[in-house]
Structures are given as C-alpha cells and as structure tokens.
Write a structure and sequence with these properties.
This protein is an all-alpha fold. The protein is 76% helix and 0% strand. Helix 1 crosses helix 2, helix 2 packs across helix 3 and helix 10 runs antiparallel to helix 11. InterPro entries: ARM-like, ARM-type_fold.
C-alpha cells in the first residue's frame, strides 16, 4: 500500500482495518510480518479488540492465521523454499537457512501471537471452532510438518488458557473460571492425541522431541482440583503423560543410519518434561503418587534399564517430593528414604571397585542426580 492509501485509511477506521487484514494476508512474508505484529498488539488491547469494526474481521483473520501456520510449517521444510517465494522477496535472503529463520522468528511467532490473542478473547468459542481441525491434524497419518503446526497451535491455546486462569484466580472471577472450564473440556481429547502420537522411536527423534516439548504445557489441564476426580479425564491424561515420558527415557532400538545421539536426545527431553511437570504440578502428581511410584519402581528395578534411565526417574521423583506443598517434612523423609538408600548402597558398592575401574564410579557420579547428593 502506498502512503496516500495509508493516509486515507487513518481517517476511516473501517478502511484501516481492512488494509491491515489485506497486508496480513499478503503472500509476501516480509509484507505480512509487520501487519501480523500489529494484529497481535491489537488483540492484546482488549478495548480496541472489542471494537465492532475490529471484531468484524476476526473470523477472516482467524482462518487465515491458522491456515497460514500450517503453510509456513510446510514451507520451512521445503528445500526449494527460495524458488517458491516471490522473486523480489527471495533476493532479500542470502540462503534458504536465512529464509527459514525468518519464517520461524518473524512469521510463525507473529501468527501464533494472533492465535493466542483470539483464544484469549473467546476461549470457549475459539477452542470449539478449531477443535475438529486440530484433532484431525494430530492423527497418526498426518505428515510431520502438519503435526508440528498443530502442536504449535495447541501450545498457544494452552498458554492462553493458563494466562486467563491465573488472571481469573487473582480477580476471584467465578464467571471467567466457568468459561475456562468450557474451553478446557475439549482440550483433554487434544492432550490425549498429543500423548498418543509420541512413539519414543529414535527414528523420528526430531518430531518426538517436539511432541515431548508440548507435554509440560498440558499442565494447565491437570491442576489438583481436576486430578482429584479419580475417573476424570485429567487424571487419565496425567498418567498417560507419565507413562509416555518413562517409556521415552529408553527409546526403541537405534535404527540403522541414525546417530546414537538421537536416542539420547529423546531421553534427555523426556527427562526434562518429567522434571518440568514435577515443578509445575507437584500436588497433582502427589494425588497419583501410588501409580507413579509403581511406574518408577518397575523401571528402576528392570535389569535391562540403563543407569541413566534410573537416574532420570529418581531425580524426577525427588524433585516431586521436594516441591509438593501437601507433604510435611516427615512425609518427605519417608517418601525419599526408599529412593535414596539404594543409591547410597550403589555408591558404597562401587567405592572399592572404583580404585581399579574408576570409569564405573565416574559414570554414576556423572548422572543428573549427582548434583543433589
């Protein structure tokens, strides 16, 4: 748009809004980026966002933002990305890598800002509108780039719900909390789909790592009040997350042609997801501690489980016990003792042997738990 068009639009809000929509939908990424950033700012300003003129274009903007996210994720994996771009725009980038970085840092981030803003304006309505599309995209037959885009949208939705919940709790807004519950309910099915997609296979390590990164965001769905329902979806989702993380600590056999580091990366991300869950919702985890302890015990006592896996699980369990506000000091001591005593015994058994085989003790001391001993 030239300066004359922009100047006229400032005097006519309807034209300005339509201009911003047109710019946001421009196929040239460098043109769309500033407009998408402007829409993100508008959506963060509730008074402006609820203006009838602005709100009148939300359906068009929402459809574009969600569709564009899938398109951008596909383009990011395209080796001929520069050839597919507008020739004049392609000349602005020195390499495909530069163009991909621009898509990730500018376009994708701004599109997610629009999605998150839309969800915050009408959480229940937005989730109801997009639920079916996300459920389809999170299917087992979906290509990796489609799953990636769907996971990004799920992350944005959960972040929006988390922000709204914290605000409603601070304001003691019962109406807002009830509205959030309506938005949260269909998210349990999406969470189960995310968990179900995780294969713990080193052959698809990049996608598995991305899927594991979404699990801590699901913490907003498994608050203690929701997990307290023994047969409810929150408890089922939480247990499913724990089981999948534990399985990913020891990925399936390394496929031919893949680096041994792929399996280690999956295990590291699974461990990080466990610790982040222990930090985010310790009281929820304590409500399912009997199942959790049984799961950890089965892994720790498995003779085929690597030492690193056992260390990851012990670190997670101790982080949980330390962070649970519902535990007294005496309860923490009682829960931690059966975890620490076998570790202490293992150290004692290795102490003498380490004089002849120092690598064994070094391996043990190099585990994540060593910093806490």
């Amino acid at each position: 748009a030239d300066e004359t068009t922009a100047s006229r639009a400032l005097d006519r809000p309807q034209q300005l809004v339509e201009l911003l929509v047109a710019l946001a939908r421009d196929p040239r990424y460098t043109v769309a980026a500033p407009a998408l950033g402007a829409w993100g700012a508008i959506l963060r300003h509730s008074a402006v966002a609820r203006d009838p003129v602005v709100a009148g274009v939300f359906s068009v903007l929402t459809e574009h933002a969600t569709a564009a996210l899938f398109s951008v994720c596909r383009a990011s994996h395209e080796p001929r990305l520069l050839d597919l771009m507008d020739p004049h725009e392609a000349d602005l980038f020195e390499s495909v890598g530069d163009a991909r970085a621009f898509l990730a840092t500018e376009i994708r981030a701004k599109l997610l800002g629009v999605v998150r803003g839309m969800c915050q304006l009408d959480p229940a309505g937005f989730v109801a509108w997009i639920h079916a599309s996300l459920a389809s995209a999170l299917g087992p037959a979906s290509p990796g780039e489609v799953v990636e885009a769907a996971l990004l949208i799920v992350d944005a939705i959960l972040a929006a719900l988390d922000d709204l919940e914290q605000r409603a709790l601070e304001d003691s807004d019962a109406g807002a909390l009830a509205s959030l519950q309506a938005a949260r309910t269909p998210c349990y099915a999406l969470g189960q789909r995310v968990v179900g997609l995780i294969t713990c296979d080193a052959n698809s390590s990049q996608l598995t790592v991305r899927q594991l990164a979404t699990l801590p965001a699901l913490a907003v769905l498994v608050r203690p009040s929701a997990v307290a329902d023994a047969g409810g979806p929150a408890r089922q989702l939480l247990l499913g997350m724990l089981q999948k993380c534990a399985a990913c600590l020891h990925p399936s056999d390394q496929p031919v042609g893949k680096s041994p580091g792929d399996g280690a990366l999956v295990a590291k991300r699974a461990s990080a997801a466990l610790v982040r869950l222990a930090t985010a919702v310790p009281d929820s985890l304590m409500l399912v501690y009997a199942d959790l302890a049984q799961l950890v015990h089965s892994r720790v006592t498995d003779p085929g489980a690597p030492r690193a896996v056992k260390a990851y699980l012990r670190e997670f369990q101790l982080a949980l016990i330390a962070g649970a506000s519902t535990c007294t000091v005496a309860e923490r001591r009682a829960l931690a003792r059966p975890i620490i005593e076998p570790m202490a015994q293992e150290l004692a058994d290795l102490a003498d042997a380490s004089m002849h085989a120092p690598g064994a003790l070094a391996e043990l001391l190099g585990l994540p738990l060593a910093d806490h001993l």
